[in-house]
Amino acid sequence: VGVGAGRREQLVGALRGRSRYSVRVRARPDGLSFAGFWSHWSAAASADTPPGRH
């Protein structure tokens, strides 16, 4: 999922209830203020979703 320049969050929808999700992120300079390469991937962070509604 790509996140626009200057944004620090990305909402993710359509997740299943009672499930565990893991995410990792990396960053890339915008090419205007900074130039360079993609960063290394972050460590994984996990979260559990609550039970879904019936």
UniProtKB/TrEMBL annotation:
InterPro entries: FN3_sf, Ig-like_fold. The lineage of its organism: Eukaryota, Metazoa, Chordata, Craniata, Vertebrata. This is EPOR protein. Gene3D superfamilies: Immunoglobulins. SUPFAM superfamilies: Fibronectin type III (SSF49265). It comes from Ramphastos sulfuratus.
